[in-house]
Specification:
This protein is an alpha/beta fold and 240 residues long. The chain folds into two domains: 156 residues, HAD superfamily/HAD-like (Rossmann fold); 50 residues. The chain has eight helices and eight strands, in the order αββααβαβααββββαα. The strands form two sheets. The chain has a six-stranded parallel beta sheet with strand order 5-4-1-6-7-8, with helices on one face. A two-stranded antiparallel sheet has the order 2-3. The structure holds magnesium ion (MG). Magnesium ion binds next to loops.
C-alpha cells in the first residue's frame, strides 16, 4: 500500500468515526519526546555546563534522566532542566511531516504538554517552538497543564513509561505510547511517526467498531404494534 493509499484509508476511517460518533476523533500529542527530541539540546546544555561529570556521553535509556546517577550528577540534571532554554529543542522531522496530515484528514489535534514550574519560561518556549515549526496550524491548539488527566480526548500519545496525570480520576483518553527506548517493552497501544497512518487507522477503526457494537438502536418512540397500548386509547367514549 502506498503512503497515499494509507492516508486515504485513514481519512475514510476518520470520516466513519465522525459520522457515527457525531464528532471528530480527538488526538492529544505530548511535546517532549514525541514531537521534540531530547537527544540534542539537553546533552548539549548539560555538557556545556557540567562536562566534568562525564554522563550522557552515549544514549540515555531512562525516562527519568537522574536514574542511576550520583547525587551530584542528578542535581546537575535537575538544574539543567530548570535552566535550559526549551526553544533549543529540535522537532522530529517525521512529526513535522505527519501532524499537518492528521489535521487535514479530520483529527481534532491538540498538544498536551507539561512545563516545568521551576523553569517559568519553558511554557512560552513550548508555545514559541510549536509556532516556529508548525506555523498557525498548532498555535491555538496548545494545552499546557501539570495534569493531563484533566484533558478530554480519545488518545494521548505520550512517551512517559508510567501513568500520566496527577489526579485519582481515571483519564477519559487512552494512553498510546510513543515508542522510545525506555518504554519499548511495556504492553499497550503504541506508535511511532513512521507507521502512524497504519497505527492510527487501527485505533480509530477499533473505537468506531466498539462504539457501533455497544450502541443500542434508537428506541421507537411510538412503536406501531397494531393494538393500542395506552389506557386512554381504549377507554370508551363516554356516552351522553
Ligand atoms: Mg514526553
Amino acid at each position: 500500500m502506498t503512503i497515499h493509499e494509507k492516508i486515504a484509508r485513514l481519512r475514510a476511517a476518520v470520516a466513519d468515526f465522525t459520522r457515527l460518533l457525531g464528532r471528530k476523533p480527538v488526538l492529544l500529542l505530548d511535546a517532549d519526546g514525541v514531537i521534540y527530541q531530547w537527544d540534542d539540546a539537553f546533552p548539549a546544555y548539560f555538557h556545556g555546563h557540567y562536562s566534568h561529570l562525564h554522563v550522557f556521553e552515549g544514549e540515555f535509556n531512562a525516562f527519568d534522566l537522574t536514574e542511576g546517577l550520583s547525587p551530584e550528577a542528578a542535581a546537575a540534571v535537575t538544574k539543567t532542566m530548570h535552566d535550559m532554554d526549551y526553544s533549543e529543542l529540535v522537532a522530529y522531522e517525521a512529526a513535522i511531516a505527519v501532524v499537518p496530515v492528521l489535521i487535514e484528514v479530520g483529527f481534532d489535534v491538540a498538544i498536551a504538554t507539561s512545563h516545568m514550574p521551576e523553569n517559568v519560561y519553558s511554557a512560552s518556549a513550548k508555545q514559541y517552538t510549536l509556532t516556529r515549526d508548525f506555523g498557525d496550524l498548532l498555535a491555538k491548539r496548545v494545552l499546557i497543564t501539570q495534569d493531563k488527566t484533566r484533558l478530554i480526548g480519545d488518545w494521548l500519545l505520550d512517551d512517559k513509561p508510567s501513568t500520566v496525570g496527577q489526579t485519582d480520576v481515571p483519564p477519559v483518553w487512552e494512553h498510546v505510547y510513543f515508542t522510545q527506548r525506555y518504554n519499548q517493552d511495556l504492553p499497550g497501544a503504541r506508535l511511532v511517526w513512521e507507521t502512524s497512518f497504519d497505527d492510527l487507522y487501527d485505533l480509530v477503526s477499533a473505537k468506531t467498531a466498539a462504539f457501533a457494537s455497544t450502541t443500542a438502536p434508537e428506541p421507537e418512540l411510538f412503536p406501531n404494534t397494531g393494538t393500542p397500548t395506552y389506557p386512554w386509547m381504549t377507554a370508551e367514549e363516554p356516552t351522553a
